[in-house]
Amino acid sequence: xxxxxxPEGLDTYLERASGGDHRLAAAARALCAIAAAGVELxxxxxxxxxxxxxxxxxxxxxxxxxxxKELDVRANELFVDAFRQxxxxxxxxxxxxxxxxxxxxxxxxxxxxxxxxxxNIDTNVSIGTIFSxxxxxxGAGGAEAHFLQPxxxxxxxxxxxxxxxxSIVFAxxxxxxxxxxxxxxxxxxxxxLAAPGITRECTEYAINASNxxxxxxxxxxxxxxxxxxxxxxxxxxxxxxxxxxxxxxAYRIIMRGGVFLxxxxxxxxxxxxRLRLLYExxxxxxxxxxxxxxxxxxxxxxxxxxxPSIHAKVPLVFGSSDCVALIxxxxxxxxxxxxxxxxxxxxxxxx
Length: 351
Ligand code: F6P
Ligand code: MN
Fold this sequence. Notes:
The chain is α+β, with helices and mostly antiparallel strands. The chain contains seven helices and 15 strands.
């Protein structure tokens, strides 16, 4: 894409947006390094089976008990190398048990999910890399301390999505969410959509409905009411979409609204859901809020939660703000808090 005519390139945009602030300049360097590694990973993903068995299981699990795939490990190495090219004090990754100390004098720390949606590697469905850039804390007692800040402190965050288009979706400084798309002809990212706005209302939800029997009553009541469509208390028909890749569901919601839910449920190990606060919920929450949507743990804003540990999980609901608020009302309404005799017969909208 010739400079000066078409949309702005990522490097130029970030240099302008950092406006001489030294921490933002460091975040810009990290973002450029992430984008460059994203170009490389996009090439590998695009080769599919021609590049080997990327979805092959390595026969071991990561810290969360997910089976590690060949591509999980390659992506982790690629992005750790990228952070070595930028002023990054420490990195946390879904694929590493402990934080990795890089340059202790550097002003930022990065948390990442190097390969989100890895169950979709072999299925040719979009997958991604999620990242969260935090200010490094001076005098932090151990590398972990940098990461135990609420998501509201993020300087920049977002994800690279490898799909029909490879794009980087991010929030940087206090600017609205941006989408830059990779031009495969010259290997560079260009601005594709500035400040996308998520509709307040929604008629589309994303949830792994196979867990229905494990859900808590408020969540079950909400989904049951959605399923009843125009005949039910919510008085409108809903559509359902579930890709199994958080990045793909988040991208769709930014483009056309909707709500995503991964609640806590009664399965062992799922009390706080499946998704990780530091490198899944926080970055998604930031770009969703900066696009006019909301993100909660069913009740509280995700960005206000102080992480209890670096790999902590959190229930996650995000998307169109009216819908997220409605789900919070189901959760705070006492009629759904226990299995009262009337449960299932009453609904939030039909008292
Ligand atoms: O990284 C976790 C993840 O793969 C997300 O990308 C996705 O939203 C979710 O887990 C899928 O969960 P489940 O296995 O319940 O479909
Ligand atoms: Mn993930």
